[in-house]
User: What shape does this take?
Amino acid sequence: MKDSIRKPFVAGNWKMNGSNELVESFVSNLALNPDVDIVICPPAVYLSKLSSASFEVGAQNASEFASGAHTGELSLGMIAESGCKYVILGHSERRENHAESNELVARKVKATIEMGLIPILCIGEPLNVRESGGVFDFVKAQLDAVAKECGAQYIKNSVIAYEPIWAIGTGKTASPEQAQEVHAFIRKELTALDASAAASVRLLYGGSVNAGNAKDLFAKIDIDGGLIGGASLKIEDFTTICLAAS
Ligand code: 13P
Assistant: This one.
């Protein structure tokens, strides 16, 4: 039986995609589902427009700094003012393409919680790590860095997304069994720090989730929803995925 203290959670990460037209279509047409927390994370320029919608909105990244000479960055205060409740942090595209270390991601998690926002903390291994059998050690190091910076209290204030890098944008989804195995490991690691927070933290799976495979993934006991990339740009597919979570 799935634990009913964890309300299903589905977030769409639009990455660097979207347009005014897509924003308007989501604001007008995305069906809410009272059984699922639904969040859309568009490029930052669309945040204010989407914040009038009845679903929640999240940013895709944030600076660790409050203000200053950081051209191109957004502070958490600005993100909060634009109507966001959530911030995706540590996405593999930020870790890999913008050299974000485990320690930097951990500092961002801390600053986000201090701002009263909820991090959607992304973790997950590249293909070579999976092939060499190092998945648990890799994911543990990512989690340990956050615990070292924030203490166990981050668990009750965060959502955590397991996104194996080899499954992102590749059409090669982790099998429900592969995903569940890592989710169970993550929950066990968190349980060692704070058992009650670990029982209630939502663990999302991300990586080529689509309208066809979502139901089987979300049926697994430790998979509480998804972080959806490509399929979150199509309102029908995203709606099907949200339904699959409920
Ligand atoms: P895809 O669903 O396109 O594989 O992307 C997943 C992802 O990176 C969500 O953050």
